[in-house]
């Protein structure tokens, strides 16, 4: 027999509903009043109650505390009294409410049935016995009254509309819960913070440590910031690592169970996005520091290059330009590069002062009035606009023009009359071509004229080397005719130099004779007679040459120059005959100087040396007409006669000097012959 279910909800006044069971019915072991039995989805595993369910004690009739789980809809109203029960039977003994329901609230276990009592029930939660047997209606065929909070005896509550949120009090195991895209995005964004915060939220410590290690490695490579920055490969690798960490965090966080409430859940993703400002700000700060460090490193590198160039210049201070030229050009190249490409740098602003110092050092010989030594450095400075930017040089090259013209003129003037290279005409031609309007160009013609006149004056001055002056006059004559832009202006000077050369050659020959340089004197006078055959002094030049040749064999003949004019007074006759089979040249000098040639005697022979030593030997013993002869009219005095007879070979000459004294009132004859030892 059954009984209608009783809606056992608590009364508002807290009183317990009266039991309408007949008095003879044994009392039911119903749950105590005030027990609020929570609901659990029917498909939840049994261990969910044991592992996750919690019990909260509250007074009877008190409101339930707020929960993150969706509210359980109210139970449907109890069916009318005359409505038959939806199902027969009762819940298994020892369970409360529907099967696998999650219990929320406090409860007391019903007291166990006494041993051997009615029904023979076993103490504890075993199957009920006796009046607790689960037959239809229970309690002797009647259904038990519903406990308070139940929808109705024997009726299961409907399932919740959706699974409860993941967190305390309910949820699914990882990998089995619902998909949460925002939660996955949260973990991914936190992992992009470079500190693995997403892994910390998931409590995945190994992955978080890996993120820390990667970030530490990046810091070691990036700090301190320098001019070269972080290697590109490191940056690309770290960026790829962050992306992988974000993707992995999103994968892990998509179904993960995170223990925080709804309010925290709503704020977590915005806060994670805000946290991205930390690495972004760090990157911006590093980029700024890197830019500053790079700029400072660039400035220091430029200053180092400038200092190296300064050392190249300073190392050659006081040295000749030729030895320092290579280093000067290297330093100049650095100055030009820094001053143009990096003009705004600290080093670039120092370049103008360095160029001033460069000009001063390179042109130092000009300040010391070493004009020829200064010429090459000044030319180098004058041509700098072809090597360095003109804007960087400013007006410095213009300041070199006048010193260069001055040095060129002084160097050319110093070379006047010098036959060795470089000659004066080269300097003057360069000066006139490069600086035609310079006042130093106008000084060229007067300088050459003065040099010519000075050498001509030296030809007659005592103690001067007339031969040297003559050679310089020859060079000056060439100079006057070789300065191409000034040939017409220098033509009168060239004519004056030519006259000086003629005079100088004669003066040189006589000076050489006076210095006992007889061979040179003879050569000089022969050249004079050859070059100026029509000159009035050419006969005397020949006399000096003859006297010098005789004096070369007989130094006594060169005690003094032969007289330029023949002496007056009586003259004596001297007849010279040739008693030899070969011709003979006779050079004589004394009060009168000259030479003649005797032809060979056709019927004559060489005498034996023994025959010439016999007493009474006499050459030219035959008829006088047989022997070639020369008759001379000579003033009285001592004469030295040089016989020059060709020997058996063309290169051998038989020479002999005969000293003859001519006295007034006599006639003289002499016979020339040859002898041999065999």
**Radius of gyration over all CA atoms, rounded:** 70 Å
Mean pLDDT: 77
Q: Low-confidence stretches at least 5 residues in length (pLDDT < 50)?
A: 1-155, 162-175
Q: Whole-Å distance between the termini?
A: 197 Å
3D shape: rod-shaped
- Strand line-up of the largest beta sheet: 3-2-6-7
Treating each run of at least 4 consecutive H or I residues as one helix, how many helices? 20
Number of strands: 9
Strand fraction equals 5-15%
Q: What composes the largest sheet? A: 4 strands, antiparallel
> Which range best describes the helical content: under 10%, 10-25%, 25-40%, 40-55%, 55-70% or over 70%?
40-55%
SSE topology string = HHHHHHHHHHHHHHHHHHHEEEEHEEEEE
Question: Structural class given helices, strands, pairing?
Answer: alpha/beta
Can you give a write-up of this model?
Helices cover 44% and strands 9% of the residues. The chain has helices at 46-52, 181-191, 197-202, 205-222, 232-253, 262-275, 277-314, 321-341, 346-362, 364-367, 371-382, 390-393, 398-414, 424-434, 444-458, 466-480, 487-514, 518-531, 538-553, 609-613; strands spanning 571-579, 584-589, 594-598, 607-608, 629-635, 637-646, 653-662, 667-673, 675-676. The strands form three sheets. A four-stranded antiparallel β-sheet has the order 3-2-6-7. A three-stranded mixed β-sheet has the order 5-1-8, with no helix packed on it. A hairpin with a 6-residue loop joins strand 6 and strand 7 (653-662). Helix 18 packs antiparallel against helix 19 (538-553). The longest helix is centred in the middle third of the chain and has 38 residues, at 277-314. Mean pLDDT is 77; it is low at 1-155 and 162-175.
């Amino acid at each position: 027999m059954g009984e209608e279910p009783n809606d056992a909800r608590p009364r508002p006044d807290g009183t317990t509903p009266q039991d309408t069971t007949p008095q003879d019915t044994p009392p039911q072991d119903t749950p105590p009043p005030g027990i609020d039995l929570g609901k659990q989805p029917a498909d939840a595993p049994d261990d969910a109650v044991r592992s996750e369910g919690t019990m909260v004690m509250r007074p009877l009739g008190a409101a339930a505390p707020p929960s993150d789980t969706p509210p359980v809809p109210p139970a449907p109203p109890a069916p009318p009294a005359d409505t038959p029960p939806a199902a027969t039977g009762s819940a298994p003994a020892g369970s409360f409410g529907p099967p696998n329901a999650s219990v929320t609230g406090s409860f007391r276990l019903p007291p166990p049935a006494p041993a051997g009592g009615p029904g023979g029930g076993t103490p504890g939660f075993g199957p009920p016995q006796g009046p607790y047997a689960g037959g239809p209606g229970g309690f002797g065929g009647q259904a038990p009254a519903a406990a308070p909070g139940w929808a109705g005896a024997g009726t299961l509550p409907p399932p919740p509309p959706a699974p409860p949120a993941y967190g305390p009090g309910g949820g699914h195991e990882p990998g089995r819960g619902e998909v949460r895209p925002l939660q996955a995005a949260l973990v991914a964004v936190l992992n992009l913070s470079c500190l693995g915060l997403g892994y910390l939220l998931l409590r995945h410590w190994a992955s978080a440590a890996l993120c820390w290690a990667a970030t530490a490695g990046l810091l070691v490579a990036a700090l301190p910031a320098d001019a070269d920055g972080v290697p590109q490969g490191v940056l690309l690798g770290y960026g790829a690592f962050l992306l992988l960490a974000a993707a992995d965090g999103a994968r892990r966080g998509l179904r993960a169970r995170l223990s925080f409430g709804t309010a925290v859940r709503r704020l977590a993703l915005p806060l994670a996005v805000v946290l991205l400002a930390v690495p972004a700000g760090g990157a911006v700060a590093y980029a700024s520091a890197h830019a500053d460090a790079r700029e400072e490193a660039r400035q220091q590198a430029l200053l180092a290059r400038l200092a190296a160039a300064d050392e190249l210049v300073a190392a050659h201070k006081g040295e000749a330009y030729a030895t320092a030229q290579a280093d000067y050009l290297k330093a100049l190249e650095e100055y030009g590069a820094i001053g143009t490409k990096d003009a705004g740098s600290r080093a670039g602003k120092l370049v103008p002062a360095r160029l001033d110092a460069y000009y001063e050092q390179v042109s130092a010989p000009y300040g010391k009035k070493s004009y020829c030594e200064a010429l090459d450095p000044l030319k180098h400075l004058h041509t700098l606009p072809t090597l360095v930017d003109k804007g960087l040089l400013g007006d410095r090259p213009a300041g070199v023009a006048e010193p260069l013209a001055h040095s060129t003129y002084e160097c050319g003037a110093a070379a006047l009359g010098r036959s060795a290279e470089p000659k004066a005409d080269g300097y003057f031609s360069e000066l006139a071509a490069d600086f035609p309007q310079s006042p130093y160009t106008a000084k060229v013609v007067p300088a050459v004229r003065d040099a010519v006149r000075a050498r001509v004056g030296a030809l007659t001055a005592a103690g001067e080397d007339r031969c040297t002056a003559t050679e310089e006059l020859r060079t000056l004559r060439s100079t006057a005719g070789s300065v191409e832009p000034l040939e017409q202006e220098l033509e009168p000077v060239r004519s004056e130099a030519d006259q000086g050369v003629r005079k100088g050659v004669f003066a040189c020959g006589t000076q050489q004779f006076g210095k006992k340089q007889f061979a040179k004197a003879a050569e000089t006078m022969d050249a004079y007679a050859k070059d100026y055959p029509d000159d009035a002094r050419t006969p005397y030049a020949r006399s000096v040459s003859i006297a010098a040749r005789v004096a070369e064999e007989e130094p006594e003949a060169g005690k003094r120059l032969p007289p330029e004019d023949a002496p007056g007074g009586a003259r004596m006759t001297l007849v010279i005959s040739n008693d030899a089979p070969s011709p003979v040249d006779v050079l004589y000098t004394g009060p009168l100087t000259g030479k003649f040639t005797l032809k060979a005697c056709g019927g004559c022979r060489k005498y034996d040396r023994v025959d010439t030593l016999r007493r009474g030997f006499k050459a030219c013993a035959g008829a006088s007409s047989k022997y070639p002869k020369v008759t001379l009219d000579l003033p009285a005095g001592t004469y030295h006669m040089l016989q020059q007879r060709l020997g058996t070979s063309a290169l051998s000459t038989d020479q002999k000097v005969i000293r003859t004294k001519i006295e007034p009132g006599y006639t003289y004859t002499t016979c020339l012959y040859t002898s041999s030892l065999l």
